[in-house]
Amino acid sequence: MLNKIHHTAIICSDYQKSKKFYTEVLGLAIIREVYRENRQSYKLDLALNGTYVIELFSFPNPPQRVSRPEAAGLRHLAFEVDDLEKIIEHLQKFKIEVEPIRIDEHTEKRFTFIADPDNLPIEFYEE
């Protein structure tokens, strides 16, 4: 019935800051950017390696969402990487705090987390 995940939608509090983070820091490509006058909202469609993955929205004064400790709901966004050290080095150039590397107890794969500009947890999982 299902084919794949189509995209993940993220509502940000500072559109320009989040746009810069997702495009310049994480390197996602802009597919389309639309300003919706009637909603006073931007909608930015972003791709990873040519595949549409994120809708980034802005709305006036969005309510804060509990992210930590472990609140019910969507936990985090995860990206697969080939080289964890390489992505950590890249993130540190942008002064982004990176959590210590952990080991998945079931797969023995390495992973780490950062936070986006709105404190959404983002995981990098090494394959």
CATH architecture of the largest domain: Roll
CATH superfamily of the largest domain, please? 2,3-Dihydroxybiphenyl 1,2-Dioxygenase, domain 1
Helix count, DSSP H or I runs of 4 or more residues: 2
What is the helix content?
10-25%
Low-confidence stretches: none
The main sheet orders its strands as 1-4-3-2
Tally of separate domains: 2
What is the residue-mean pLDDT, rounded to a whole number?
Answer: 92
- Structural class of the secondary structure composition? alpha/beta
Number of strands: 8
The level-1 CATH class of the largest domain:
Alpha Beta
Largest sheet: 4 strands, mixed
The CATH topology annotation of the largest domain reads as: 2,3-Dihydroxybiphenyl 1,2-Dioxygenase, domain 1
- Shape field: globular
Keywords: Metal-binding
GO molecular function, one term: metal ion binding
Protein name: VOC family protein
Domain VOC: 4-127
Could you characterize the architecture of this molecule?
The structure is a single chain. With 127 residues, the chain is of the alpha/beta class. The chain folds into two domains: 1-61, Roll (2,3-Dihydroxybiphenyl 1,2-Dioxygenase, domain 1); 75-127, 2,3-Dihydroxybiphenyl 1,2-Dioxygenase, domain 1, CATH 3.10.180. 17% of the residues lie in helices and 38% in strands. The chain has two helices and eight strands. The strands form two sheets. It has a four-stranded mixed β-sheet, covered by helices on one side. Strands 5-8-7-6 form a four-stranded mixed β-sheet, with no helix packed on it. The radius of gyration is 15 Å and the shape is globular.
